[in-house]
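Sample entry (246 residues):
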Amino acid sequence: MLDRFSAQAELYARYRIDYPPELYEFLLAYTPHRGQAWDCATGNGQVAVVLAEHFQHVHATDISTAQLAQAPVRPNITYQVSPAEHTPLAAASMNLITVGQAVHWFDADAFNQEVRRVARPGATVAEWGYGLVQVHETLDPLIRRFYAETMRPYWDENRWHIDDEYARILFPFEAVQHAQFLVQRQWSAEWFLNYLRTWSSVVKYEKQHGQDPVLLIADQLTQLWGQQQREVRFPVFLRLGRVESL
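Predicted structure, serialized as tokens:
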């Protein structure tokens, strides 16, 4: 797994969305035992912090030291630099394994094998992501063109797994459940443009060309957006299963 998010770690911590309470309520309803949880690809620790309110201990791993440096310290969270596919976690130790907006970057077979190794019998595994943001009919075509045309050569191919909600990524677990959620925020045009700067494709473009591609649409987007805050909507998809045995 390549590190695609260290360069924008501070922007990521500030401008990326968090997840709705309903998502956590859904996965906790399937996880009656609250001993240990593993938040894989934790980034700046936003999921780990929520899980720490419900579990005795949370192990949060990521390959990015820069991302982990943004994570809040909690007495029952252990942050470790580790790839998703090979961790220092003890076998048969986890009651819950979570991955938010990251499983499309993994070696799926190796990660699923690691999940089975560290999961206690009956553990819950939950993977989720969120699709392209929606704002308003006057803005959405501009955003879609930037995402799917201007930035297309700079997205890793793995990114397109988000568009079909992980349908092509193996999920070999039992009692599988699916759920949909919606994240709604009020953002200014400036905030939205900084959110775009957290995209891995934008960072890749800037490294290759030495300029910020967000500036290609900044003036037009700002004019269409206006001075007011607008509601932005992120569709969140989740799949959940149970790890019954090795």
